[in-house]
Amino acid sequence: MTVVIVIDERADQDQLDRVIDLAASAGSDLRVHNRAVLSASGDRDAVAAALAAEPAVLSVTRIPAPHVLASSEAKLGALSTVALGECHIGPAGFTVIAGPCSVESGEQLLEIAAAVRDAGCHALRGGAFKPRSSPYAFQGLGREGLELLAEARAMTGLPVVTEILDVRDIEDVADSADMLQVGARNMQNFTLLRELGRLRRPVLLKRGLSATVEETLLAAEYVLEGGNEQLVLCERGIRTFENSYRFTLDVGAVAVLKERTHLPVIVDPSHAAGTTSLVIPLALAAAAAGADGVIVESHHDPATAMCDGKQALPVTRLPELMSRLSLATGAAGRTMHPSVAGRRKVRMLRGEPVGAFPVAAARFVEN
Amino acid sequence: MTVVIVIDERADQDQLDRVIDLAASAGSDLRVHNRAVLSASGDRDAVAAALAAEPAVLSVTRIPAPHVLASSEAKLGALSTVALGECHIGPAGFTVIAGPCSVESGEQLLEIAAAVRDAGCHALRGGAFKPRSSPYAFQGLGREGLELLAEARAMTGLPVVTEILDVRDIEDVADSADMLQVGARNMQNFTLLRELGRLRRPVLLKRGLSATVEETLLAAEYVLEGGNEQLVLCERGIRTFENSYRFTLDVGAVAVLKERTHLPVIVDPSHAAGTTSLVIPLALAAAAAGADGVIVESHHDPATAMCDGKQALPVTRLPELMSRLSLATGAAGRTMHPSVAGRRKVRMLRGEPVGAFPVAAARFVEN
Amino acid sequence: MTVVIVIDERADQDQLDRVIDLAASAGSDLRVHNRAVLSASGDRDAVAAALAAEPAVLSVTRIPAPHVLASSEAKLGALSTVALGECHIGPAGFTVIAGPCSVESGEQLLEIAAAVRDAGCHALRGGAFKPRSSPYAFQGLGREGLELLAEARAMTGLPVVTEILDVRDIEDVADSADMLQVGARNMQNFTLLRELGRLRRPVLLKRGLSATVEETLLAAEYVLEGGNEQLVLCERGIRTFENSYRFTLDVGAVAVLKERTHLPVIVDPSHAAGTTSLVIPLALAAAAAGADGVIVESHHDPATAMCDGKQALPVTRLPELMSRLSLATGAAGRTMHPSVAGRRKVRMLRGEPVGAFPVAAARFVEN
Amino acid sequence: MTVVIVIDERADQDQLDRVIDLAASAGSDLRVHNRAVLSASGDRDAVAAALAAEPAVLSVTRIPAPHVLASSEAKLGALSTVALGECHIGPAGFTVIAGPCSVESGEQLLEIAAAVRDAGCHALRGGAFKPRSSPYAFQGLGREGLELLAEARAMTGLPVVTEILDVRDIEDVADSADMLQVGARNMQNFTLLRELGRLRRPVLLKRGLSATVEETLLAAEYVLEGGNEQLVLCERGIRTFENSYRFTLDVGAVAVLKERTHLPVIVDPSHAAGTTSLVIPLALAAAAAGADGVIVESHHDPATAMCDGKQALPVTRLPELMSRLSLATGAAGRTMHPSVAGRRKVRMLRGEPVGAFPVAAARFVEN
Predict the structure, then answer these.
(1) Does A304 touch chain D (CB under 8 A)?
(2) Which of A216, B327, C78, C107 has its CA 20 to 30 A from that of C52?
(3) CA atoms of B28 and B47, how far apart (whole Å)
(4) Which residues of A touch D219 (CB under 8 A)?
(5) pLDDT by position in tens, chain D (length 367)
(6) Measured between CB atoms, which of A210, A213, A242 is closest to B250?
(7) What start and end residues bound the annotated signal peptide (chains A, B, C, D) (predicted)?
């Protein structure tokens, strides 16, 4: 059992030092994660007793595994919010990220991006570097894909999420994307996680296809321990014996994660579905179970998609997805984030600057 | 591949005989399931060509496994409705069945039953015969439990669902219950399924804890083939590597089943959850994914429950469950069934007879 | 935790009563399984201390789940032997049971049975009642199959193992077979297990396709608690995500079971393999991991088998199986049982009666 | 379906070009993997017909997934051998690799290494870079560990296997180790696989904990496609619902892999076992099922091991492992490789040079 000790951030160094000394003698393996969070191994009650007279100590709790910084206990039950452009993934609103499995061309990406924005979705996804089971499958456009994503962001105002595969690409990807996605197959690529912990850019960490909830939180801990607190988890289906769809969407894990961690949790219904007709039901299930958002593969012409077309939601169905999601999120006591256009309208009404986005949009429509 | 041939029920015997002859020569293993449904092995297009001139033939389709009678194709895409007392599980409304894991005493059962009815749930569950992993665990009250269920039904007006374990108990259970439940561990107890096929009483068939969707439909086929069409399927979580809850609720299977079968599909969130806090999120996920109902373990005093108390939803939370479910079902384009009380009120307004139920309820309240 | 108390069988009633009283006050839920084995819930050390002065108490140990009678602790580490005709499944020798998936005809069965005997295998398997996923698949010859099995037993001298599906068939099956097999899909058919516990005939209990080792031992406990100690367990592959064979043979479970139970453990490599070429490697793996025997589907003409022909080992390969198994059992510190013919030879050399078997064999050869 | 075309390596460029042209017109997606192996998508029979008159074409076969270079078909059924120092993993003999989970100190490593060599094992394993679920667990000695491994190799004559985690460490690891291991969690770290494909140093690729056999072969294809043919696969247990051991050792996958690939396949029984008592039974099962070797965690003092001590085989049990393995390999029609000492003796008898190893060994013994 790991004991988590949360300290008032306003405590001075003397107070902090005294807490550290007392905790170190009451427990073992004391670790100072940051100014607000310590942890130790040992008996929670003994540690709590040793710290009883310390006013700077806000809480002493016990967690089942050493995912200290990811635990709800480390934030005293408060929920974190992670920026994705102007949208904030977290308790304030439900976030919908949509876009193609992989960036195929500028035309393809812009057509999809415009539809994503027009449907009121909040961010654009698209793979430039694609991890593929076979070395002979399409591996993505690489750096060219990154440039197209940056261009789509400029033209639509949508923030961009894309996958990072190689530690040596981190800077390039961080230059083009608002959020770096770690795919399921890399969830325990600790080398990559550690480097992303050093970055100051939001990260989306997908659960491995047979990773337990605990292992997912420990993978998150690698990023948090490096000091990068802008982290979102993503459930995307686990591998089971069932083969009537691609992966088993684990809504139970979503509900458990919402209890155990302060980090936002979103869901990828597309990879779990493996087929278009299941995408919306799974997205709705995720929202009703309490997820903070979904990331959906969508394409303007699934039949010609270079990758995963079978599971792509046609962009023409995005409005249906959005309106049904707004009902499902209600069941979970949540509301949808306003759309990019909605935010602009509010700003215009307030007389605030709104940027070049309408022009870009117009230019796109002209194409 | 199995080819399903649907025939107009108004066809006369000559027409039927001709279709049978033609189908038998175009395919192999011809089987006459009933006057409306035939099946054969072979090439769908060849069979369709052979039957092209037969006006009585309504459709010739292909299904991946021989669950002919369970298939959506056998009903031309129409959805079945299964009676549960006055409530009808199926497309007309979302059904909530609630009650204790096992019947423990008359007092316990009636207290819970009244709360179930008052919350607006539609039916009462409760185990009289309990299948338990260990021979030393509480095995249920048996026949005494059946009598208590019948009494609770009489007093509350709620129809009753209870589990059947032994073919030799079928008559007794059918006398006391409105719907007989086959538990997950008996999903492939073909002896039991066959006997239930001969019964004319609704059956609730739970998916085995590692049964595929196909196997579930084939188990259903055993009941349907016997002539019992009053059958409801139930997803209750599958066994996977994850251990942060009890079983992995498979919302994907719900969505797939709704595509492949005309049978109603409900969900048991309680056994999947294994812990109270997850029950409502999982129930909401099921409703949003398109389930036709849920069956929830609920208890007035979970701490003292003789079985599965850890996962029982306190009856005081049933109203919250009902109101949130009505939002989640909206996302799936559904509405909730009216409550028993609601039905009575409608009848009274119409001047129809409403039975002894208010008295019974009153008597209960006096206790 | 369950505490197991083993008592010297020679203890008199007074001694036993005193032990019962003392154990009941030191632990809770005291249970007298039989004259030699008690169990209680509670702290092992407290119970042991209470019984320290009782000479009739041979051991007080702790087991992780309440499979008291199945536990190694209940037999003080000794291993059980279960009779299968003249062969004894257990530590004295490795047992090979072979035969067709299902009895198809007298000719088929006798041809296979003769080959099984001639290869030196120890018993004949064959299904008369077949549990099939689909109601439309061949369900076995039923009672006619039982008669054919009895005939094959008479003609070859091989004891017979066959499956029991329905509690109402137990007497008939017990009349024709030396060992009644409970299939994987019925492992938690507690009604059936309880009835078999009342029988005095050997039972072969197959592990469910997603049953844990603990659940398997608890299912065994149902039979043992009824007083039937002639019980053999069988690992036959579990359901996982892998699909390059039929089920995942769990040799780890074999090794764990050999540590946790005194019951013999055999392995069915055929259902795990799903394809002929994998059967021998899996059988060898089972033997090397410490199994007490294997049960193998074998057919004289797999291409025409009415069921599971794809995984049937041609009878012509049985000699190879036997000779390679004798090497693999050596790695586990075991030897093979002598063949039926070998036993007869030993008896003839000793001047003991050998029965009508050679005549029967001759008659068969004449056919 | 992928069609594999194997060409005589002695074919001249004209012949090769003609085969390429013909194959490209008969199939699609033609790919020239190397001078001996082409592949195409399409109908095998059509491609074979197009190439029927080409004498340089040795075979045209069909495989279920695009793991062309890893397939048995690409080598016409011949089995590959991969050098590990003087030992050769492959059909000529069974290979045993043993050593600690992680290198902890020079003293620890040398004591274990000497015992590994003295027991007749063929190679030393030991982790310098350790992938750990938690960022707070011991992560290995890093470069210092590599130096200790090189020293142990020099002193014992044993070749060394160690894990590589980070593409940026490849050169360093390749300098110290004879074989680079890719761990299960990195099996689909395609960045790493691709870099190892460019290396000319043997690689040991562990199956991911929920990777299918097909995905494992496709991961291998990444390395082979880069031109590195020195590749060994390793089954190490998969993740299932069973929790009475750590992972489910998949002996069925070993048997399937031996049919589908020419690459050697070894087994890690230690991670599957998770506990010492199961290691030898699982190793024996692997050998009997046809594995080409085992890699076993072994320690001189498991109780103090910094990592995975619970599953470490005490070095004092290595002789038992070796002698029982030699029986189990016999069942699979195999023999054990000679030990390092055995090889030296043969060389000395032949008057060949044997190097400084005895001195080193002596020095070690003096410590």
Answers:
(1) no
(2) C78
(3) 10
(4) 133
(5) 899 999 999 999 999 999 999 999 999 999 999 999 999 999 999 999 999 999 999 999 999 889 999 999 999 999 999 999 989 999 999 999 999 999 999 999 999 999 999 999 999 999 999 999 999 999 999 999 999 999 999 999 999 999 999 999 999 999 999 999 999 999 999 999 999 999 999 999 999 999 999 999 999 999 999 999 999 999 999 999 999 999 999 999 999 999 999 999 999 999 999 999 999 999 999 999 999 999 999 999 999 998 888 999 999 999 999 999 999 999 999 999 998 888 888 888 888 876 654 434 433 333 3
(6) A242
(7) none
Do C243 and A239 count as a contact with CB atoms less than 8 A apart?
no
CATH fold of D82-342 reads TIM Barrel (3.20.20)
Write the residue in B214, B281, B290 that is nearest to A255 by C-beta. Answer: B281
Contact assignment for A65 to D134 by CB distance below 8 Å: yes
Nearest-CA distance A247 → chain C (Å): 10
* B2-63 shares its CATH topology with B82-342: no
Which chain C residues are within 8 Å of A239, Cβ to Cβ?
241
8-state DSSP, A40: E
Question: What distance lies between CA C85 and its chain's CA centroid?
Answer: 13
- Are C217 and C260 in contact, with CB atoms under 8 Å apart? yes
Question: What are the angstrom distances between the C-alpha of A352 and each of A88, A118, A343, A346, D7?
Answer: 20, 22, 11, 9, 70
3-state secondary structure of D88: strand
Interface of A with B in 263-302 (CB under 8 A): 272-273, 277-278, 281-282, 284-290
Whether residue B188 and residue C131 make contact (CB cut-off 8 A), yes or no, is yes
- Cβ atoms of D1 and D39 closer than 8 Å: no
pTM, 2 dp:
0.95
Which residue in C238, C281, C290 is closest to D289 by CB distance? C281
Give CA separation, C331 vs A254, C97, C296, D333, in Å. Answer: 47, 20, 20, 13
Whether B23 has its CB under 8 Å from any CB of chain A: the answer is no
Q: A218 CB contacts (<8 Å, ≥6 apart)?
A: A65, A66, A67, A70, D133, D134, D135
D244 CB within 8 Å of a chain B CB: no
- Taking each continuous run of H as one helix and of E as one strand, the counts in chain C are 13, 15
Name the minimum distance, in Å, from the CA of D266 to any CA of chain B. 25
Nearest to C210 among D241, D244, D284 (CB): D241
Q: How many CB atoms lie under 10 A from the CB of residue D136?
A: 20
| B343, containing H or E segment | helix B340-349
Q: Burial code of A53-85, b = ≥16 C-beta within 10 A, e = fewer?
A: ebebbeebbebebbbbbbbbbbbeeeebbbebb
**Contact flag A188-D131 (C-beta cutoff 8 Å):** yes
Task: For residue C210, give the chain A residue with the closest CA.
Answer: A241
Q: Which of A66, A135, A189 sits opposite D134 (nearest CB)?
A: A66
Are B137 and B143 in contact, with CB atoms under 8 Å apart? Answer: no
Question: Does CATH place domain A2-63 in 3.30.70?
Answer: yes
Which residues, other chains included, contact A56 with Cβ-Cβ below 8 Å and sequence gap of 6+? A7, A8, A11, A15, A16, A19
DSSP element (H, E) containing B44: helix B44-50
Contact A139, A94 (CB under 8 A): no
Strand B313-314 and strand C28-32: the pairing is: unpaired
Residue at token pair 């369970």: B70
Chain A: list its partners (3+ Cβ pairs within 8 Å).
B, C, D
CA-wise closest residue to A266 among A144, A114, A24, A95: A95
Dmax over CA atoms of chain A, in Å, equals: 70
Hey, how many other C-beta atoms are within 10 angstroms of the C-beta on D366?
6
Cβ atoms within 10 A of the Cβ of C347, count?
Answer: 14
Domain spans of chain D? 2-63, 82-342
